[in-house]
Automatic annotation (TrEMBL):
Pfam family, any one: Rieske
Organism taxonomic ancestry: Bacteria, Bacillati, Actinomycetota, Actinomycetes, Mycobacteriales
PROSITE patterns documented for this protein: RIESKE (PS51296)
Cellular compartments per GO CC: cytoplasm
Gene3D superfamilies, sorted: Ribonuclease Z/Hydroxyacylglutathione hydrolase-like, Rieske [2Fe-2S] iron-sulphur domain
Keywords from the UniProt entry: 2Fe-2S, Iron, Iron-sulfur, Metal-binding
Domain (Rieske) ranges: 460-511
Designated name of the protein: UDP-MurNAc hydroxylase
Organism: Nocardia fluminea
Coiled-coil region: none
GO molecular-function term, one example from the UniProt record: 2 iron, 2 sulfur cluster binding
């Protein structure tokens, strides 16, 4: 099996049964905030796109690059389609001209037959509202000699199904770096923000190391991040100054983490690197010395910024400008969704303030209305400051997901009083009838918390109240505090109270 890195979470995988292109991303995204790092724009995309199969893990725009797929990827390629309950991914690919789909079943091994033979695949599909834009996934590929698990930035909760189907894993491609706006955009003191960032950074790497232990692959490739921020307004987000509170550590940082913890199977791949894998044997070649990137990372980023300045300027010029109140357009968008999502609206539970330029608009979730501020109304429990051109652009484009556009851009500010509210961000990624109906129904289903596990002198329910992760594998106890490293949520073990978000109580008792 020959695996070529094509940047970020993208890989070109060659087997005797055919070629598979996974998650190619080249064009800047999230309002031109994110660019691939290291730069992959100079690869031979005509050749890389001439494949037998295409796998797009999910609809986050650093995995689903519509313009690139339309221009470079062979439309006769068969799509290896994750088993998602909402069909948005298939519809988007069909709109680009793809017509051949191999519909997989979640966590079921399939055999696909190519030009020269067959290869086994399995796509693990994650379906919770928090997983990508209504779905995230990872893919296993085995040619009979080598098994590759491309986990990209999915967070599976059950590794047993993988080992039951494929046995030992030879090479594991996984995310380790941040892909979120927290805590950078929050209106909090700088020292507090730095502490939160340090915790977020370490938890992300701890989670990745937990997956490494559970998968047990011979080789591990840190991938799916970080992006690089080339806009002068956002350059502070790059981890090029030794800031331990930066949530976007690069590949070298994580490889050091692996070595510190005794795992010597980590390998660096940059765009164009090729790994020839034969079971547990691996030969690696790079297109050039990676020290050109990591030896002086700040200089490399500056060179990219200068080269891509016209691209960034063109992206900014495409944003929608205009005048006039946005109250009525947002009322038309949000009120029908509020009225369809009783559980989610009640879960948010408070009015939310949108400060859009000089205008403040209130999303009154308890009353399911969008309105102007009331006289004497104080600071809102949850709020966002967003430039009007970003809001006008997502309205122009009929964008169903503000998380996958405005929020991931980090081009906004946020505040909150109290803990994280999962229902609020779920609402903003579900701005269609189909999405909100699915999400509201998902939350209404009772989680299975009947099984228990023991952790450091405590008996706790085995499945995390958040997204059902196995706490015997992801749970970490420190004193009376439990952290689930899958998403970093925390509980007070004495009371069972969730310290991260409203609700989600944990059943626990001291042994």
């Amino acid at each position: 099996m020959q695996i070529t890195s094509v940047g970020h979470a993208g890989f070109h995988i060659r087997t005797e049964a055919g070629t598979i292109l996974c998650d190619p991303w080249v064009n800047p995204t999230y309002f031109a905030s994110w660019f691939p790092f290291p730069d992959n724009s100079r690869l031979d995309w005509e050749s890389l796109g001439d494949v037998d199969y295409l796998y797009v893990s999910h609809l986050h725009r650093d995995h689903f690059d519509a313009a690139h797929l339309a221009k470079y990827v062979n439309k006769d390629a068969t799509i290896l389609l994750p088993d998602y309950p909402v069909l948005d991914l298939r519809r988007e690919l069909e709109a680009l001209g793809f017509t051949k789909f191999f519909e997989t079943e979640d966590s079921v091994k399939h055999t696909i037959t190519g030009p020269k033979g067959s290869v086994d695949i399995m796509i693990v599909a994650l379906r919770a509202p928090a997983d990508g834009p209504i779905g995230d996934s990872g893919i296993l590929i085995s040619d009979g000699e080598t098994t590759c698990f491309n986990m990209n930035d999915a967070r599976p909760v059950d590794m047993d199904v993988i080992h039951d189907a494929f046995g030992d894993i030879d090479i594991h491609l996984l995310q380790y770096s941040g892909a979120i706006w927290y805590p950078a955009v929050y209106d909090i003191p700088a020292r507090t923000k730095a502490n939160f960032g340090k915790q977020k950074r370490q938890r992300g790497m701890d989670r990745a190391r937990s997956y490494i232990e559970q998968v047990g692959a011979t080789w591990v490739v840190p991938s799916a991040g970080p992006p690089v921020f080339l806009d002068a307004e956002l350059r502070y987000l790059n981890d090029d100054r030794g800031d331990e509170g930066n949530i976007f550590p690069d590949q070298m940082v994580f490889l050091d983490q692996m070595n510190i913890h005794g795992n010597e199977g980590g390998i660096l791949m940059i765009p164009g690197s090729v790994a020839d894998v034969r079971g547990k044997e691996l030969d690696l070649t790079h297109p050039f010395d990676p020290d050109r990137i990591y030896g002086d990372k700040a200089a490399y980023i500056e060179e990219m910024a200068q080269r891509f300045a016209p691209v960034l300027a063109a992206e900014k010029a495409s944003w929608e400008t205009g005048e006039g109140s946005l109250l009525e357009p947002l009322r038309e968008l949000f009120e029908p969704i509020m009225k369809q999502s009783a559980l989610i609206s009640d879960g948010i539970g408070y009015p939310v303030g949108l400060v859009i330029g000089e205008e403040t608009i209130v999303l009154d979730f308890p009353h399911r209305t969008v309105r102007a501020p009331l006289e004497g109304e104080g600071r809102y429990r949850y709020g966002f400051r967003i430039a009007p051109e970003l809001v006008r652009t997502v309205l122009r484009d009929n964008e169903p997901d503000w998380v996958n556009t405005i929020f991931l851009s980090t081009r906004f500010q946020a505040w909150r009083i109290g803990g994280y509210n999962e229902f609020l961000y779920t609402f903003f990624k579900c701005l269609t009838d189909e999405r909100i109906a699915y999400a509201d129904g998902w939350f209404s289903e009772a989680h299975d918390d009947s099984a228990v596990t023991e952790l450091d002198g405590w008996e706790v329910q085995r499945r995390c109240p958040h997204l059902k992760a196995d706490l015997s594998k992801f749970g970490v106890v420190e004193g009376n505090n439990l952290t689930c490293n899958l998403h970093g949520w925390q509980w007070d073990l004495e009371s069972g109270r969730c310290k991260t978000s409203k609700g989600h109580e944990l059943r626990s008792r001291k042994l």
